[in-house]
TrEMBL record:
Origin species: Cellulomonas edaphi
Reactions mediated catalytically: (2S)-2-[5-amino-1-(5-phospho-beta-D-ribosyl)imidazole-4-carboxamido]succinate = 5-amino-1-(5-phospho-beta-D-ribosyl)imidazole-4-carboxamide + fumarate; N(6)-(1,2-dicarboxyethyl)-AMP = fumarate + AMP
One Pfam family named in its UniProt record: Lyase_1
Family that this chain belongs to: Belongs to the lyase 1 family. Adenylosuccinate lyase subfamily.
PROSITE patterns: FUMARATE_LYASES
UniProt KW keywords: Lyase, Purine biosynthesis
Record GO terms (molecular function): lyase activity
Name this protein carries in UniProt: Adenylosuccinate lyase
Lineage start: Bacteria, Bacillati, Actinomycetota, Actinomycetes, Micrococcales
Gene3D superfamilies cross-referenced by the UniProt entry: Fumarase/aspartase (C-terminal domain) (1.10.40.30), Fumarase/aspartase (Central domain) (1.20.200.10), Fumarase/aspartase (N-terminal domain) (1.10.275.10)
Annotated SUPFAM superfamilies: L-aspartase-like (SSF48557)
Function: Catalyzes two reactions in de novo purine nucleotide biosynthesis. Catalyzes the breakdown of 5-aminoimidazole- (N-succinylocarboxamide) ribotide (SAICAR or 2-[5-amino-1-(5-phospho-beta-D-ribosyl)imidazole-4-carboxamido]succinate) to 5-aminoimidazole-4-carboxamide ribotide (AICAR or 5-amino-1-(5-phospho-beta-D-ribosyl)imidazole-4-carboxamide) and fumarate, and of adenylosuccinate (ADS or N(6)-(1,2-dicarboxyethyl)-AMP) to adenosine monophosphate (AMP) and fumarate.
Gene name per UniProt: purB
Amino acid sequence: MTARVTLADVTPAIALGPLDGRYRAAVAPLVDHLSEAALNRERVHVEVEWLVHLAQHGVVPGAPTLTDDDVSYLRDVVATFGADEIAELGEIERTTVHDVKAVEYFLKRRLADAPEGSALRDVGELVHFACTSEDINNLSYALMVRDAVQRVWLPAATALADEVAALAVELKDQPLLALTHGQPATPTTLGKELAVLAHRLRRQLRRIASDEYLGKLNGATGTYGAHAVAVPGADWPAVSKAFVEHLGLTWNPLTTQIESHDWQAELYADVARFNRVLHNLATDVWTYISRGVFTQIPVAGATGSSTMPHKVNPIRFENAEANLEISCALLDTLASTLVTSRLQRDLTDSTTQRNIGPAFGHSLLAIDNVRRGLRGLAVDPALLARELDENWEVLGEPVQSAMRAASVAGVTGMENPYERLKELTRGRRLTADDMREFIAGLGLPDDVASRLAALTPASYTGLAGALVSYLED
């Protein structure tokens, strides 16, 4: 066999997974928050802010007060963190074989390079003061996930829900033959069915938007042991709480070495639930396309099938289904794994949390696909009208209900309405004449008989159109 080129040696490096390869453009915004480089940048950020917090609040006796220029210099280390800094950290870590220690040494280099006369040259031992690695990591992950959700995922998911809601309003009065158990059922409107999905999506988004992001800074086993021995005069829980809240997080006062990750499990469960509702939307739209309710607008130059040129495949919705399933599998694993840590610490969470990015990436990719798919849909009103006109038996429900109401009002001859409609309609296709003839022979009051005779499957949509107004932003 002829030897092949080793693709692992090709430069630039070839992505192993599709999120960093084929689908990179759709998920690229998450790289700024959930990549390994983003994790290291956030670690530098937390270390910088902890140093500033200790110095500016006089927590450690003898620490110099930092000037505004000193603080700006430190925060600029975070702001300018890029390719060169990523490479430098990688080089340090090859020696330390410890990622957080590498960040500590990286920052100390920056302090040593501070301008002549700056107090920063004298505060090296405040870097990582009394911290365990997990003090830095838990805060970094909380900031990363918060920003990924609030700045990238949530805006995209909200835009999707808004687009579904807008389509629901547009189609609120478009009659649609409903299918329950796959069988013709009480008509509805296409807009009302989309409104149900938009309402479900928005409810999950409200939960996600209100989720908390917890953090802690309390040492190797959550006891402030090193803190209290080094500086016994400080109110360390108060210092910790103020710092965590300064970062914009919710302080967790009781932890082991690690922050317990329960907030992550809660968030991931909520995102997974949103995914599953969106999966339902994708399967429903796919089915509407299969029925011809929706037609797909062809894209110039695009190929639907390699051999069948007439086809316009619903690939956006199928792609979304697959990515939502992968995302949910990862989110479920994250949620179930992260809530357990043996005794005071084990490292299972370290590898697990490095898959937060792919979990959100597959969800974001699915959102992108559904949005693009929805924009390529058109309704076929003629088909909808034809389906409704072929199923007059669905009017058995309102006729039966009118007979019940008439019976309660004292009209005679209204006995056994369900059974009589069942005998008329079950397993049969009725015409308009069949239904109207049946109604005429019931002996209903004239106004009721007239109302039922005027009813058609297309007009029997109840309050469906009006219900769309219950959609909440």
